[in-house]
UniProtKB/TrEMBL annotation, chain A:
Signal peptide: none annotated. This is ABC transporter ATP-binding protein. SUPFAM superfamilies: P-loop containing nucleoside triphosphate hydrolases. Residues 5-241, 257-501 form the ABC transporter domain. Its main location: membrane. It is found in: Cell membrane. The keyword Repeat applies. Belongs to the ABC transporter superfamily. One of its GO terms (molecular function) is ATP binding. It is a peripheral membrane protein. It comes from Devosia soli.
Length: 514, 365
């Protein structure tokens, strides 16, 4: 029997000469969960865009049920039973769940939108596939995990037989990932087929039946999930042995940064975080644990000078940071890797060189008498591209042309090219491939060994556990637990505090906070 | 540079291709309008295409327009690069024109200092006028679009009032000042035409704006603010200072255009409504030039040609003057939309390039 969906020696070259796919083969059997893994820039997204009709292949052929097909646009792919859930959702936040699901193919009576029928259909669909979502509330009020299910419902509502999930777990907390997997298994049990794109190998191994590995625009091979290990998959992806272990700090130095009784409020005056007390020493990484939206990100913004402090004090090496501007804080040795590289960390339309120099425009080496020293800026950019092995055409290329991992390397290169005293890091490896993750982790530990006090926030608990020397857990804007990292500390333990299920006694917490 | 940045020539080629496509389509639409309204469409169309080159005088008209379009295009490019949508060039032109005229009519006007002093006065006036909406935005969060548009009306009406009530020669009833002394009027480069100092001013201004944007610290900060204001804030760039200063500097170029208007050979005096809404066409120039200062004069050259051709067609042929405005508006519409809308595939289809029929959203409908 022919496979359900087949891609045969697909080739795609983008205008500008980037070869995204070069002889890619993919074969999907009906009723399986098929993972496609590979580093950023390996060509996974391009392949998925071709399967979904967003891009057309230059070479090669797609076959559905053994018959050659070509999709000129997503509409045609949808009509053929293919659905896709993107990493960035396309939902209308102010519309309710059912409205979002049926949008564009609403049930009607005459010319009237039959709301009752829509609600019933959506409810039936969500029960059938165990995607517990209430059809009525506005999508904007739902947590990310639920929004993702709305996207999946959208595809199912349009009778998708094959569902492509583009890095579905990148935005989810551990418990939500588990729930997503329940839903994926329900889908497969009911005869649907799932294509799952991912970076995180433990998840891939947990959910998929078969795995296709891509590297540098080519397919390296397809394997059964049962027959491989994390290590062997990683080797296939990167093409060499990699180690995802990090050396811990050898010992910590003097107190570098202290946060005292800090209070943060939203513009409306609603409290975001209260009574935050932290100490970070030179040469240690303090992990900020918490489900997103519990105040960790805001704390980092406040220290960086990007958010007003309602009450309390932040000290860096004895100096009060509160009255200082962002630039003055940077001059004291503060560096920061922000949560969202595209929204905050880079100017994607500007060149790599310009992005790399953007935080040093008061530096005599690059700017004299108000004039740019283009030679020095270019030389510095070339040096950093080399040192951080940023894969790019050159310093004159816009940052927006780089892959996610390389963009993040630009941010890391800029922030760490000079040894910081205090380093704020938020989601350093979100949407970044394995090779780049390894590199970024190494850069962070090097900064730590160089004497930086590091505050690290991440949605990836394994990242926090791998890098942190101490960890504090945030829940509803308060620190509810603190730990000295050890091999006994598990993600599950942290999880109970993250979700507010348990609370540490003040004595234990104080001991770990010192 | 070539191996370090994407090929510049390929980019220039692509952009030029788009501009030419838009112009060709605009001309086709113009041809339709002419066919519908003219008794002798052939002659009318030929006038549209060739009239600007027909004599030294018409060449002067064209180049005069190019100078003015370049300056307004530069002023808009500056604010657009900082992603500010200040529409205030027209107001700055009037304020600049007013102060240039005041200098020209003062005792300084009769000395050799008349031109430089008047230019500086015009630039200062324009800068102040550009600063106001910028400051209002930074300080009070006022939308620069609204405040700058309102300031345009204020400037035009103040200037018109001053001319009528105070500056026009008493008792003549004319709505313009008397001619300035010769020392205060730009010297002609080609005698007897409008080909004057203005074009040199425009070219120098082009270089200055390019230098400011691409060689100075301020320009880099300005462009970074324009690319991503949140990134600028995070990098420690004071976006509000950059925003206000960008609008102020752009205002200076708007003011300079005021001087080019009133002291140029086209006028040589201050008249009511002297800019004929040309100031606004800088938006189009800046869009097509993608706010790149070095591209601005070239776009102005091409657009000024069409503009002048259409005007001469209005004068020399039977195409009704209303239709001239229609053709001009269509040209603006087409050129601007081909640069701001994702119509690339549509044009590719029109040009017969290979794309599957259903590949464009237009065709799928």
């Amino acid at each position: 029997m022919a496979p359900l969906l087949e891609a045969i020696s697909i080739g795609k070259t983008y205008p500008g000469g980037t070869v995204a796919n070069d002889g890619v083969n993919l074969s999907i059997e009906a009723g399986e969960v098929h993972a496609v893994v590979g580093e950023n820039g390996a060509g996974k997204s391009t392949l998925m865009k071709i399967l979904f009709g967003i891009e057309q292949p230059d070479r090669g052929e797609l076959r559905l049920d053994g018959k050659p097909v070509s999709f000129a646009n997503p509409r045609e792919a949808i009509d053929n039973g293919i659905g896709m859930v993107f990493q960035h959702f396309s939902l209308v936040p102010s519309f309710s769940v059912y409205e979002n699901v049926v949008l564009g193919s609403e049930p009607r009576t005459g010319i009237k939108f039959d709301r009752q029928k829509a609600i019933e259909e959506v409810r039936a669909l969500s029960e059938k596939f165990r995607l517990a979502v209430d059809p009525l509330p506005p999508v904007g009020q739902l947590p990310v995990g639920q929004q993702q299910r709305v996207e999946i419902l959208k595809a199912l509502y349009r009778n998708a037989r094959i569902l492509i999930l583009d890095e579905p777990t990148a935005v989810l907390a551990p418990q939500e990932v588990e729930e997503l997997f329940v839903a994926v298994r329900a889908l497969v049990a009911q005869g649907r087929t799932v294509i799952f794109i991912a970076h995180k190998l433990p998840e891939v191994l947990a959910i998929s039946d078969r795995i296709t590995v891509m590297r540098a625009g080519k397919t390296v091979g397809s394997v059964n999930a049962k027959e491989v290990t994390e290590q062997s998959l990683a080797t296939m992806m990167v093409g060499r042995e990699i180690a995802l272990r990090v050396d811990r700090a050898k010992g910590r130095g003097d107190l570098a940064c202290e946060v005292k009784a800090l209070k943060l409020t939203a513009e409306s005056g609603a409290p975001i975080a209260e009574d935050l007390n932290l100490k970070v020493h030179q040469g240690e990484i303090l992990g900020l644990v918490g489900v997103e939206g519990n105040g960790q990100a805001e704390l980092l913004e406040a220290i960086a000078g990007l958010r007003a402090i309602a009450d309390g004090v932040v000290y860096l090496n004895g100096e009060k940071l509160n009255p200082l501007s962002t630039l003055e804080r940077r001059e004291l040795g503060l560096a920061s890797i922000p949560e969202d590289r595209i929204a905050r960390g880079l100017a994607t339309g500007a060149t790599i060189a310009e992005n790399l120099v953007a935080t040093r425009l008061a530096d005599k080496r690059y700017v004299r008498n108000g004039l740019l020293d283009l030679k020095a800026i270019k030389a510095q950019a070339l040096k950093l591209i080399e040192r951080y092995s940023i894969r790019a055409g050159g310093p004159g290329y816009p940052v927006g042309t780089l892959s996610g991992g390389n963009m993040q390397k630009v941010v890391v290169a800029r922030e760490l090219s000079e040894q910081p005293k205090l380093l704020l890091v938020n989601q350093p490896t979100r949407g970044v491939d394995l090779g780049a993750t390894q590199f970024i982790w190494k850069s962070l530990t090097e900064a730590r060994d160089g004497g930086a006090a590091v505050l690290l926030s991440s949605a990836d608990l394994s990242e926090l556990l791998a890098l942190s020397d101490r960890l504090v857990v945030f829940y509803r804007g308060k620190i509810v637990a603190a730990f000295v990292n050890s091999d006994d500390l598990t993600a599950e333990t942290l999880g109970t505090y993250m979700l507010g299920l348990s609370r540490q006694d003040p004595e234990t917490m104080r001991a770990a906070l010192q | 540079m070539s191996q370090n940045s994407p090929s510049r020539w390929a980019m220039i080629g692509r952009e030029t291709g788009r501009a030419v496509t838009a112009v060709v389509i605009a001309l086709l639409v113009a041809l339709v309008v002419i066919l519908l309204t003219s008794a002798d469409p052939g002659a009318a169309f030929q006038t549209l295409l060739t009239a600007p080159l027909s004599s030294n005088r018409t060449m002067g008209l064209w180049i005069d327009d190019v100078a003015k379009l370049t300056l307004t295009g530069l002023a808009f490019s500056l604010v657009f690069q900082a992603r500010q949508f200040s529409m205030g060039v027209q107001g700055q032109v009037y304020m600049g024109g007013l102060f240039a005229a005041l200098i020209a009519m003062s005792p300084i006007g009769a000395t050799p200092l008349a031109i430089p002093v008047a230019m500086v006065a015009a630039m200062l006036a324009g800068a102040v006028y550009g600063f106001i909406p910028g400051y209002a935005k930074a300080r009070f969060g006022a939308s620069e679009i609204v405040s700058s548009l309102m300031l345009n009306y204020i400037a035009i009406l103040i200037v018109n009032y001053l001319i009528r009530a105070h500056l026009a020669p008493q008792g003549t009833g004319q709505l313009a000042t008397a001619k300035f002394p010769d020392t205060a009027i730009y010297p002609a480069i080609l005698p007897g035409t409008r080909f004057d100092l203005g074009i040199l001013v425009a070219l120098v201004a082009t270089f200055v704006v390019w230098f400011l944007l691409y060689r100075t610290n301020w320009g880099l900060k300005l462009r970074l603010v324009g690319h991503n204001p949140k990134f600028a804030e995070y990098s420690g760039i004071r976006s509000s200072f950059i925003m206000v200063s960008a609008m102020t500097v752009a205002g200076a170029f708007g003011g300079l255009l005021g001087s080019v208007f009133v002291q140029g050979r086209a006028f040589g005096n201050l008249a009511q409504n002297f800019d004929g809404n040309l100031a606004f066409e800088g938006i189009l120039i800046a869009i097509v030039a993608r706010s790149r200062p070095l591209a601005v004069p070239f776009v102005a050259l091409a657009y000024g040609y069409l503009r002048q051709g259409a005007q001469l067609m209005g004068i020399r042929t039977d195409v009704p003057t209303e239709m001239i405005s229609v053709v001009q508006a269509i040209i603006i519409l087409l050129v601007a939309s081909s640069f701001s809308l994702p119509g690339k595939k549509f044009f590719a289809n029109l040009l017969g390039r290979k794309t599957t029929p259903a590949a464009t959203p237009e065709a799928a409908k």
